[in-house]
């Protein structure tokens, strides 16, 4: 599966799709492959304050639970409630299955993240 | 365990096949094993609805033979092996003097004084050392670690018999649950037992290691019409949990007795002495203070091994297995709780990473196949 060129990526395998000072956040195809069948998502409430690199929720696959890490600092302004009802979409459509929208505390922070090419090189 | 982790991972005779087939491999008990092929959910459902094939060659085989073999097995294994006829097997435990589990195992009676024990992969050496030491008083019996002489392939699911029957002259329909037969499958010398770790009908096939790959391919080919799929250890774990089969190292270990694990039925109460008998009889007389129970989550959360069980503010036990099961589509698990709180429908909290989630005691097994 291709890694969208317009997204930014973390070494923890999250992506963020920026739109102005907001960004949709999900996990990468590589991450979902490692996790296996996703069955449960625990996501923060709207209004939660996140710090880059810290856990903002958890994702359960059949075999294990993993943390979700915020790629940037900011405030949660939207949560994908539909995805919580259909967590298996993370496996089938990882790059459109966004989990939260973060309003960035510092809009330039995302420039320090990996671009698609650098991320793909990192998971090689 | 550090030594095991540092040592190079062992490989089953099917290792190259797993790698070539694109299975996701993980270290397990010192072995490089497939955790999933097409995905745990797909594999789990295939076994419940059709058939799946598993490489379980990492399991250990210890043979005990000699004029006093029965006496030796009776001493080290808690179930009553005198009840086994030739061609029959049963589930049992290798216990400490405290009645706790060194390992769980299957005991096969190959001949009057010849037994085959199938033990867990990571415990082979420990089990062997324990057995060799403790059968000495039994006199004329010898234990041999025969693990390298066997590959073990499990074919599980409602279509397993049909798939295998096309490959053998052995009348599989005549093999009853927990019995076995010798013969040829796909022209390979094999011992076939109607056993498994999935809660489904199925067989486990012992073959020489050099024939394992040929048998694997023959079964895949014969299974094509029913969409039999190769499965990994991930599905094996979710399947066994739905069937409430205990996992050594999680649900049972050297801190839990056979009674606490609610495995009274594998204790040969009427036979003479065996290792752990005294402790178990004493515990039976007073009653075990805790018990392994099955639970279902009421709140939306998945309990995992190690999570605490709470009644009010008090931690009273712990989760030993837990997942979201693919077939029942529920979050279930096994946990030790005080016997007083083990009754069906008793509710308790599980500490799921800092958040309390409600759960309820339910009957075991979670899943029972239609006969």
Describe this structure in words.
The complex is a heterodimer of chains A (124) and B (371). Chain A is α+β, with helices and mostly antiparallel strands. Chain A has four helices and nine strands; from the N terminus they run βββαβββββααβα. With 371 residues, chain B is an alpha+beta fold. Chain B is built from nine helices and 19 strands. A six-stranded mixed β-sheet of chain B has the order 10-11-12-9-3-13, with helices on both faces. In chain B, strands 14-17-16-15-18-19 form a six-stranded antiparallel barrel. The radius of gyration of chain B is 20 Å and the shape is globular. The chains are: A alpha+beta (124), B alpha+beta (371).
What Rg of chain A, in angstroms, do the CA atoms define? 13 Å
Cα-atom radius of gyration of chain B = 20 Å
Order of helices and strands of chain B: HHEEHEEHEEEHEEHEEEHEHHEEEEEE
Distance between the termini of chain A: 14 Å
Text of the CATH class of chain A: Mainly Beta
What is the makeup of the main sheet of chain A? 6 strands, antiparallel
Across the major sheet of chain A, the strand order is: 1-2-3-9-8-5
CATH architecture descriptor text of the largest domain in chain B = 2-Layer Sandwich
Main sheet makeup of chain B? 6 strands, mixed
Number of strands of chain A: 9
Number of structurally distinct domains of chain B:
3
How confident is the prediction overall: mean pLDDT of chain A?
Answer: 95
CATH architecture of chain A: Beta Barrel
Given the structure, what is the number of helices of chain B?
9
Number of domains of chain A: 1
CATH level 1 name of the largest domain in chain B = Alpha Beta
